[in-house]
Amino acid sequence: MLGLRLYWATTSAVVAAVLWGSIGVAVRLAEGAGGSVDVLIVGRALGASILSLPILARYRARLTVWGLAIALLGLAPLYYTYMKAVSLIGAALASLLLYTAPLWVVILGSMILGERPGIGGLASIALGVTGTALVSGVFNGGLGALDPRGLVYGLASGVSYALYMILARLAQNRGVGVLEASLTPVTLTGLILLVAIHPQRPPNTVELTASLYLAGFTVILPYILHVYALKHIEAHRVSIISLIEPVSAVTLAYLILGERLDRAQLLGAALIITATLTVNIGRQGKQGKHINDPNNAIDLDGPNEELSGEARIACSHKR
After folding, report:
1. Whole-angstrom Cα distance, residue 143 to residue 241?
2. What is the DSSP string of 111-175?
3. Rounded to an integer, what distance in angstroms lies between the CA atom of residue 253 and that of residue 202?
4. Cβ atoms 157, 63 nearer than 8 A
5. Cβ of 90: how many Cβ atoms within 10 Å?
6. Cα 238 from Cα 102, distance rounded (Å)
7. For residue 263, what pLDDT is reported?
């Protein structure tokens, strides 16, 4: 029975990562069929807001100031900048720039949380910066071939993702429940982006279909699968499995969209993923005393469940 649960938990983590990795492909396909990226951004966020309401009602999650801050400063900019980057530079490159987020967490964490990065953190920053430069074409003269706005949006998505993680950590350290720090901001983000972007027309059939997929299969379902995985696998292991996300994004972009990375960009991708793995391993070392704690399991039987620090933070780190 234990082995079967471990199998399904691992499978859930993998499927969640692949679904998150499909965001860029879905956006590009919808754009190619006549969809507007701005409408898709609002559609994804607003659809997820509506779909999250039954879950929040079921567990009596509350709207908090922290939830608003996470949505306004982290999640809303993340949704916007990432999908804009996908539109301008493609799904593969956008996903890799997004996955510089753990490196920004190291940098911003030292500034906001007073956390010293250590040798491992500095090494991950060096790897990540080099990888980002390779992916962007800085060393091989390919920088001019990419839309600079897309590169800015891509890096901004990584920073936004990092802010989302840091704010969620701060909120939970101050006693905010896991749902209030993770799913409640999703509900607020839809309203924030609807007001900020204010589409001038209702969605067409393509945009509506894509928005339903993006909301259901790249926000709500992977979140549920991620939480299920965290119930049966240690949080640091789930975070390592999540490295499948950028790999699947690049693979899907190649298979479905025909997007190709040159050798330098592939090397850069490997460095970014290695840097992220280095950060995860460093976090595992710092929180090692929690890793084999049975309290790491997440059980959504109530709105303010008691969780170990590692598991609570990991739960709120996925968008």
Report:
1. 31
2. HHT----HHHHHHHHHHHHHHHHHHHTTTTT-GGGS-HHHHHHHHHHHHHHHHHHHHHHHHHHTT
3. 28
4. no
5. 23
6. 15
7. 86
Length of the chain, in residues:
319
Q: Are 170 and 312 spatial neighbours (Cβ–Cβ below 8 Å)?
A: no
Measured between alpha carbons, how far is 56 from 62 in angstroms, rounded to an integer?
8
Q: Is 263 helix (H, G, I), strand (E, B) or coil?
A: helix
C-alpha distances in angstroms, 60 versus 55, 77, 180, 288, 304? Answer: 8, 27, 10, 32, 9
Structural domain boundaries, residue 298: 2-315
In this structure, the number of other CB atoms found within 10 A of the CB of residue 34 comes to 10
Q: Which residue has the higher pLDDT, 289 or 153?
A: 153
Please report, rounded to a whole number, the percentage of residues in the chain having pLDDT higher than 70. Answer: 83
- DSSP SS3 for 307: coil
> Cβ distance 273 to 243 under 8 Å?
yes
The pTM score is 0.84
Rounded percentage of the chain residues whose pLDDT exceeds 90: 45
In tens, the pLDDT along 209-267 reads 999 999 999 999 999 999 888 888 877 677 778 888 888 998 999 999 999 888 888 88
Contacts of 70 (CB under 8 A, 6+ apart): 164, 167, 168, 171, 181, 185
User: Given pLDDT bands bounded at 50, 70 and 90, which one contains residue 144?
Assistant: low
Residue 22: name the closest of 213, 202, 264 by CA.
Answer: 213
pLDDT in tens, 112-122: 767 676 777 77
Q: Which amino acid is at 42?
A: V
Is residue 297 classed as helix, strand or coil in its secondary structure?
Answer: coil
**How many structural domains is the chain composed of?**
1
